[in-house]
Design goal:
By secondary structure, the chain is of the alpha/beta class. It has helices at residues 21-29, 46-51, 61-73, 86-96, 119-129, 143-149, 156-166, 173-179, 214-223, 249-269, and strands at residues 6-10, 33-35, 80-84, 102-106, 138-139, 170-171, 201-206, 231-236. The protein has a single domain, classed as Rossmann fold. The strands form two sheets. The protein has a six-stranded parallel beta sheet with strand order 2-1-3-4-7-8, with helices on both faces. Strands 5-6 form a two-stranded antiparallel sheet. The protein starts with 5 loop residues before the first strand and ends with a helix.
Length: 270
């Protein structure tokens, strides 16, 4: 390739954009041009984000998607879009709008039409839903809450280290929007799953994920059954919601690179 393919990484709630740094380095080493922009209102500095939680408050799914769409449209070419958690949902939305050549949604938040809501998912989001005023606030997790929602498949020591390194306050609004998606005709959690012309999509799920249990990802896959565009699913049975940032991140990243090579690079050559 004469020009490097852009890759846009989108994080989810409660993890800083800088948590993608190992992925950025790996993808750059493999010939891509990767970036990991912050969410709107989010500081690129973890300590500053923690000190000013109100800066991230009030942003919903549409605002976040529009923020990343603007960044993508300024790139020299359509990117590969990789998202985790709510970032995975945003990646699906942007791919459905034909803004990427391919998408990877890792433990992606539920989109409109997905019905399963396992108890572990409810418990993971309780810090937000326990107060309706949190829809307009940015909410922080405690180390124990992070342990349940993200770090349950790793040691307590590793979970606490991840919490200290990457955890930041995040807006509660996207969770309220996702929770009411199936009762709203124009829900921002709606994704164009019927798009026949979009690029290929890979869904990744962790079998021990409390926040986005495998039932949600499997139900998401079914939402795409009406489209002939490539949609595939890969499971990491022993991984939790921290799979993009914990000590096993490289296994997930290598799987993504292999899939891109098969579904994007080789397809383009063919």
């Amino acid at each position: 390739m004469s020009e490097k393919t852009p890759v846009v990484f989108i994080h989810g709630l409660w993890l800083a954009a800088s948590s993608w740094q190992p992925w950025l380095e790996l993808f750059a080493e493999n010939g891509y041009d990767p970036i990991a922009p912050t969410w709107p209102g989010e500081s690129s500095d973890v300590a500053e984000a923690r000190a000013n939680p109100q800066d991230a408050a009030g942003y919903g799914i549409n605002e976040v998607a529009a923020h990343y769409a603007e960044i993508i449209r300024a790139l020299p070419a359509k990117p590969i879009i990789i998202g985790h958690s709510f970032g995975g949902m945003i990646a699906e939305k942007l791919l459905g709008e034909n803004l990427g050549v391919a998408g990877i949604a890792i433990d992606a938040a539920q989109i409109k039409g997905v019905l399963p809501l396992p108890l572990s998912s409810l418990k993971s989001t309780l810090p937000v839903f326990k107060n309706f005023a949190n829809e307009k606030r940015a909410v922080s997790l405690t180390a124990d809450q992070f342990r349940y929602s993200f770090g349950n498949a790793v040691s307590r020591e590793e979970s606490d280290a991840l919490y200290e390194a990457w955890n930041i306050p995040s807006p509660g609004k996207p969770l309220f929007e996702a929770a009411s998606a199936n009762f709203s005709i124009h829900s921002p959690a709606k994704v164009d799953t019927a798009n026949e012309n979009r690029g290929p999509l890979l869904l990744i799920m962790g079998g021990k994920d409390h926040t986005v249990p495998e039932a949600i990802t499997k139900a998401t896959l079914k939402q795409y059954r009406g489209s002939s565009a490539v949609t595939e699913l890969v499971e990491f049975p022993d991984r939790g919601h921290s799979l993009t940032v914990d000590s096993g991140w490289r296994e997930v990243a290598d799987s993504v690179l292999s899939w891109i090579d098969a579904r994007v690079t080789n397809a383009a050559v063919a």
